[in-house]
Hints:
- By secondary structure, the chain is α+β, with helices and mostly antiparallel strands.
- It has helices at residues 6-15, 28-52, 61-67, 166-178, 186-194, 228-238, 279-294, 306-314, and strands at 82-88, 102-105, 108-117, 120-125, 140-141, 150-158, 199-206, 213-220, 254-259, 261-273, 303-304, 319-327, 334-335, 340-350.
- Helices cover 28% and strands 28% of the residues.
- The longest helix is centred in the N-terminal third of the chain and has 25 residues, at 28-52.
- The two termini are 53 Å apart.
- This is Phage protein gp47/JayE.
- Residues 265-349 form the Baseplate J-like C-terminal domain.
Amino acid sequence: MADQTFEGILERMLERVPEELDKREGSIIYDALAPAAAELAQLYVELELNTNLFFADTATGEFLERSIAWSGIARRPASPAEIQGAFYADGGEGVDIPIGSRFSLEQLNYTAAEKLSPGNYRLTCETPGTVGNRNSGALLPIDYIPQLSRGEAVRLLIPGENAEDDETLRKRYFDSARRPATSGNKAHYAEWALQIPGVGGARVFPLWNGLKTVKVVIVDAEQLPASSALVAEVQNYIDPVPGQGEGQAPIGAEVTVASAAGKTINVAATVSLASGYALHAVTDAFAARLEQWRKGAAFAANYVSQAVIGSLLLGTDGVLDYFDLMLNGGSGNVSLADDEAPLIGTVDLEV
Length: 351
């Protein structure tokens, strides 16, 4: 519909007018046809926009959800973060709290969901999304709890996720169409793992320890090695009793779920800076770009490319050029095992 512009429509309309009549701009005929041409051009624009809402590759929002609903794939809602909280009495010893107790951590509230060990509990954020992904801070009781002196967040157990965005949902739909998950194939195991909130990626290893054995390696929503709590949830969902078909896995399949191993990538380089840029600010900006890249790199390749890291460095504001780029002390790519995910270690830039 690219040719359905105001000018094109008006030109075609004027061509239908006899040549002996005045069709110049400002004439009666021109001024009578121009508003209609403008309305028709707007109609074609809206028609194209609405047509795009019916196809999965161009639809957005609610229309994307409706266009792929036939496949059974739905947008993943936001999920709450789960953290480990430690609670102490005046003497420093652990103190037990009632399940269901509520605590505030800055602007968010958390609810005690499960006792992990004396004085240690799994707490669920009452606000879904990544906003609850905290691993430190004071937990203040909303209601009085006898003998409780203080509480603190110890670590993040399961990251919260925001509602799935359009591009992620679209990619998941097309991946499912191109590699159907069925009958316990590899795609099916990966799909089962990703159905658990907090799982950000999965890699499947069939026959990893003999016949009928399957290993599923996962990372969390932050693309970091998964916590034992998240691994246990996925294991319980897919195959809680090995080989018995009590979970999603078919009878006879013995499934082992494990966390990916993290491989630290230390980056060092000499850079040439543009005028007005400070080295520490450039280093921080580069580290942020590396972290953003890392979140999309888990299970994406079997090595960390020096060329990719160099491109990220050269694309950092203030960097004119770089020299002697080193990854883990070497001048080449860094290999990753099939069950490894990259982690960003030290970032050392010099001028």
